[in-house]
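Suppose you are handed only two things: the residues of a chain and a line of SMILES describing pyridoxal-5'-phosphate. What would the bound structure be? This form records exactly that question and the answer produced for it, so the two can be stored side by side and reused later without any lookup.

QUESTION INPUTS
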Amino acid sequence: MAIEWSGWGPQLLLELDRASGMPLKSQVEQHLRAAIRDGRLAAGERLPSSRALATHLGLSRGLIQECYAQLQAEGYLTAHTGSATRVAPTAAGATPEISGERAAKPAAPLIADFPSGVPDLRLAPRQDWAWAVAQVCRTAPNSAFDYGPANGNPRLREVLAAYLRRVRAVDAYPKQVLICTGVAQGLGLILRVLARRGHARVAFENPGAVRTARDAAGSAGIEAVPVEVDEHGIDVAELARSGARVVVVTPAHQWPTGVVMAPERRRALLSWARANDGVVIEDDYDAEFRYDRDPVGALQGLAPDRVVSLGTVSKSLAPALRLGWAVVPLSLVDDVMAEKMVADRGTSGIDQLALATLIESGRYDRQLRRMRAVYARRRAVLMNAAPGPITGLAAGFHAVLHLPAFAGEREIVAAARARGVGVYGMSDYRADSSAEPGRLVIGFGNTGEEAIVTGMAVLRGLLKE
Ligand SMILES: Cc1ncc(COP(=O)(O)O)c(C=O)c1O
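ANSWER OUTPUT
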């Protein structure tokens, strides 16, 4: 995609050799041709105005105008009266590409898509975020632009600790809060620390975030073992047999079945952890969006010395912000901080302050209230329109559609796609990739009400065929 520079346009590195005897006009032309051919200037990209480039190079404006005219005549540049000079659409030569990035054929547009885990991107809090960053840039001391503590900005840690105590009943004190770039990073840091402390295995929920768990465990050098989830949550008896003393769970809204971990299961899980000197890693990724009951508190609040609680703004604000946190037992705090130091020396200090500002101003809560109402409406539409039993709707913005026994999961996914509807099978989340029993994981975070109705109607048609 062509870059739309505002103001001066690209700062081209044009080095002129005034001693070479080669006319300066020829040198400028040669540099521009080369920049276009090797992709430093992309098709459609706007060049600096002749005045700006002339000033920059210490040449006359007339000379630059002549260069531009010459390259236009050669087909490298285009210019229309009153508009900027640009690189011609077909001029760029072999633009270097990241493998596969542009080569992939654009997929046919979908009339309805149900990816899970994505919040509504059209309603991302652009204005609030811009306001918060502007506030920080206007008011923060110069020291805010320096390196900060690797475990996070003290103000954000304090604000988050208070927020998590209030909203999630997390037993959190600022010293235990580590700011990271999301659950993904938090999980990786913790597993590496635990691996160094001698843990050779980590259990994860099945179905679950199978790929993420395996990748994170692999990168920490430990084995990932799947443990079944039933309608009450993870099977603690099977966990006890697995040989792992570390487990990753999603108790508030299991990913992806949507099961809420039952109270007796929570108790059994924590007893297992105490009896085995175990560690429970709680992924509290979407608990803010709870519909028909009061939110269940985080597991961490019941056993702060045994549970690491991971949270993120990826669902509440936007995944692109890459901000999250880990509330860590005191016994692990120093090691996790050291690991974060090695990983990236700390998360962006300005973004951390922006999040603290957003929470303190009440705008974070306001965004949650707004989005809760949006997702609640979509959830109701989905419940009405679904062509079969649907479960897992207590929280978050995904649910599970149960397919009738005669309908193959993979066939339905393929047939729906052929009709422009993106649905995703539970087999993607099962450790053995089994498509039995047939289930679809239906995300509705980034899918409007009309698209939900359309998509479900297509599925209904398929299930009748
Ligand atoms: C189970 C689960 N936890 C957490 C996350 C969020 O991860 P992150 O905070 O790294 O964006 C996701 C993203 O989809 C997820 O599926």
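WHAT STANDS OUT: The radius of gyration is 27 Å. The domain at 126-361 is CATH 3.40.640.10 (Aspartate Aminotransferase; domain 2).
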